[in-house]
Amino acid sequence: MFNSNERNSLYEVFDAYSLKDFNEFDFNKAEKLEFSEKFEQKMQKLIKRRRKPTYYLFNTTLKKVACIAVSIIIAFSGVLLSVDALRQSVKKIFIDVCAVNGCNSETVAFSKYCEKHTCYEDDCYNLRLDSDFEYGYCEEHTCKKENCFNKKTDESDFCVEHTCANPDCYAEVEKGIWCNIHACKHPDCLNEAIFNGETCSEHICPMANCNNLFITCSHKCKKSDCLMLATSDGYCSAHKPPIKIKPIEIGPIIREPVNYNPITVNPNTNIVSSKRRCSVNGCAGEAYKDGLCYNHYNRNSSFGHSSQNPITPSKPIKIWP
């Protein structure tokens, strides 16, 4: 009744009932048959209960076929897919397609982008920064100068063209080959600053022992567009300002007042003493003429006074009573 596999399974059932062997049963033939039929039914139930569910495992080919079938079903079930979109969806099933939107090219190894969208740097699989494909580096390996897509150097954030030519400097270059620190400070000069870090040999001050930029040096003429050496006043001989002469204000001529001293007169003869003195206050000189000493007489004569036009004394002549 049982094949070898089922008999082995039946032995397992017997073993569950602590029976070592089917032949150990001391049954007659009818009882043995009945017993066998009962255990056959139990065995069938046991087999059904112990049977594991069967799963349909797809291999790689079956998976691809299933994906194609799903894509076709979706296309015909109302989702409007263009031929290119359908082709792309089918293509993605069989090969890895570039992650850039609208690109159906195959990806390169270890990258999710195709060859034209992958950075050209060795061991770099990032997306290229330039969308026009003129330059081939990602953002990490591209020069940080605006509108420049060249490869940056290993030490600097800029490419060779935009990195300072000084071997110890990695600063950005605005114009020429030198950065703002190592370039001559003269306008529109592209030479290296070799004197005081601010001027080249063409724009250094011509004065001895002076290494300053000439256009900002104190030795240059103060006139903005003049490049001549200045003199002590800060200007060259051609631009030296004229000397301004300040006018001298002369006040009015003030004539010194003349005060006559009292004259001693003899009351009897009414003759003036011959020992009278100059009538000018503070003057001890002997009277020369018109009650004045020689000096004061000549001085008053220069103002238009003479013996015919004497100066009127400021005080009356005192006569002895």
Describe this structure in words.
Among the domains are: 4-50, no CATH class; 60-117, no CATH class; 255-321, no CATH class. Helices cover 22% and strands 0% of the residues. The chain contains five helices and no strands. It has helices spanning 4-16, 29-50, 60-76, 83-94, 294-301. Helix 3 runs antiparallel to helix 4. The N and C termini lie far apart (199 Å).
Annotate the secondary structure layout:
Elements lengths: L3 H13 L12 H22 L9 H17 L6 H12 L199 H8 L20
Write out key terms for the chains shown.
single chain; 321 residues; mainly alpha; 5 helices; 22% helix; 0% strand; rod-shaped; disordered C terminus
Average pLDDT metric? 70
**Termini distance?**
199 Å
* DSSP strand count: 0
Run of helices and strands: HHHHH
Q: Biggest β-sheet, characterized?
A: none
> Which percent band covers the strand fraction?
under 5%
Low-confidence segments: 17-21, 49-59, 258-263, 269-274, 303-321
Assign an overall shape.
Answer: rod-shaped
- The share of residues in helices is 10-25%
Category from helices, strands and their pairing: mainly alpha
**Tally of individual helices:** 5
Q: Rg to the nearest angstrom?
A: 65 Å
